Amino acid sequence: MIVRVEGIVIRSIDYGEGNKILTVFSKEAGKISMMARGAKKVKSRHAAIAQLFTYGEFICYKSGSMGTLNNGDIWNAYNRLKDDIHKTAYAAYLMELTDRMLGENERNAPLFEQLKASLDAIDEDKDPQIVTNIYELKMLSIAGYMPVFGECVSCGSKEGTMTVSISLGGTVCARCRHTDPGSIAVSETALKLLRLFLHMDIRRLGKTEVKETTKKQLKQIIRQFLDAHVEIKWKSRSFLDQMDKYGI
């Protein structure tokens, strides 16, 4: 069966002497795997389309779980993004999030649009951490762990100072803080952004200027939610941490 999809290469690994196995997140069919024969060879017609982040049309022959790439058309290779180590690192993390949290053939056209919008936003010099934080929350929602930031998860109150409880799944008011004494204090600005990010369409994201202290809080809270509910050791996130540690 010939399959024609609009997709993004979220994983590309070498296979054998000259081939690559691609994982493509497609708008029409979700995550699909395909063999790109000869793609490791510089002069191969599949060499360019088999690169990570490539957005385009993929035509493959599929008879089982693994398809074979027949042809394709590159619509955006994100070459400018690839020339920047910070942008590349964040984009690689988005690819890993998508690859490891979605099942094979799990269709999700809205998420596909958000992933493409995330690549576009990073490519257009929008803050890569903010883009990533919004996408992380979308992945948490898909996994069934959408945090509650609009009210107290214990009593439903929307008044007063709130802290964030990872174990309870969202904010708790001062009256209910005893239910999780280890809940995290967070600034009002960070909390407003978390509420906004939950339902943000990345395609509408403009230029943002967020203080570093606020960004650290956002990163801490979202990361703790991911680590608590999604038991995956992220390879690409380790590289981001190394860049932060050494100020690269």
Automatic annotation (TrEMBL):
Q: Which GO terms describe its cellular component?
A: bacterial nucleoid
Q: Which GO terms describe its biological process?
A: DNA recombination; double-strand break repair
Name the domain of life this protein comes from: Bacteria
Q: Report the residue ranges that make up the DNA replication/recombination mediator RecO N-terminal domain in this protein.
A: 1-77
- Give one Pfam hit by family name: RecO_C
> Which keywords appear in this protein's UniProt record, sorted alphabetically?
DNA damage, DNA recombination, DNA repair
Q: Which NCBIfam families match?
A: reco
Functionally, this protein is described as follows: Involved in DNA repair and RecF pathway recombination.
Name the UniProt record assigns to this protein: DNA repair protein RecO
Species for this entry: Paenibacillus ginsengarvi
The coding gene here is recO
